[in-house]
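Technical note accompanying the year-one report. For the benefit of new consortium partners, we illustrate the data format agreed upon in the data management plan: each record pairs a sequence with a structure-token string. No post-processing was applied to the example shown here.
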Amino acid sequence: KQLTQGEWMINELMGIDEKCKFAYFTATKESPLENHLYSLDMKSLKVNLLTTTPGRHSVMINNDFTKVYDTFSNHDTPRKCQLIEIKKGRAAKTTVLYEAPDPYAGIARPEVEVGTLKAADGKTDLYYRLVKPLNYNDGKKHPVVVYLYNGPHAQLVTEGYQWGLPGWDAYMATRGYVVFTIDGRGSDKRGLEFEQTIWHNLGYNEGKDQMQGVAYVKTLPYADADRIGIYGWSYGGFMTTYMMLNYPETFKVGVCGGPVLDWSRYEVMYGERYMGTPQDNPEGYAANTMINQTEKLKGHLLIIHDDQDDTVVPQMSMQFLKNSVATGTYPDYMLYMNHPHNVRGKDRVHLLNNITRYFEEHL
């Protein structure tokens, strides 16, 4: 029978104490941005919270379910490690083992705002992260970069340190940019109905949700509504291209890395899970095949690919380039050698400088 209920997700079953009749699992019961450890009394079905500090907890539990090793962070805690002793399914004692110092102590950091906006359906709450320029009250209008993924299995806005803020986003804020991220419908940790919004029509509803975020950014007195760029990788690269082609009046500059530009050429186990087959869903595939819509490109688009990408094969972006020549449009292209689906190691410095340079030159 069903043991728990509610609009939250169980992330992992950690184990079942058959002697004491407790089940242990991690879930998002407190907030979709957090991850906590719970115990379930399998007689009364009462759920007990064992990790009481807000944040994202990563836990290990011993074989007799008496001790938990817990590592967590939250928006103002870089990392803390603690030992939780359990008695009868409840936290009896907590001992802090280690607390990391602030790695950015003494360094100017941008202000980060996290909140919710309504999705394009008018009812679903979406979580966003807004990174403000260091001097956003200087009376100037600052350019905006939307950083996105918005695909299954990924969540960008979290109750991690600095709200999950990536280093590049913070760096861009120090250079005077507004950086905005919203997890639209289709992204992770919000349940089946939330994710299945994208079924058979990848890009369409995600794009509408991203535009809800853009509409909010345009209301900010320090954001320049005429200078909005967008950047993403993999599914985020697909979404970047989709937004550039379908909302050219909004996005002036885009950078897409490892983008899926033709879902019929993507790996079957992922693509057909969400799109069905090209034979069963020809309209859906036609709508989100970006290589056949190159004539819609108006702004500056930098496509980045890796020559050894075996997840999103480089032939996709090459076909986009071929069709761009035929339709008289002019994307830019950068190929990184000896890398798979992303750029790691020392070459990543070049990658991030390259992305930054592109926005600064064109936005």
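Partners are asked to follow this layout when depositing records. Helices lie at 167-174, 192-195, 204-218, 235-246, 268-275, 282-287, 315-327, 347-362.
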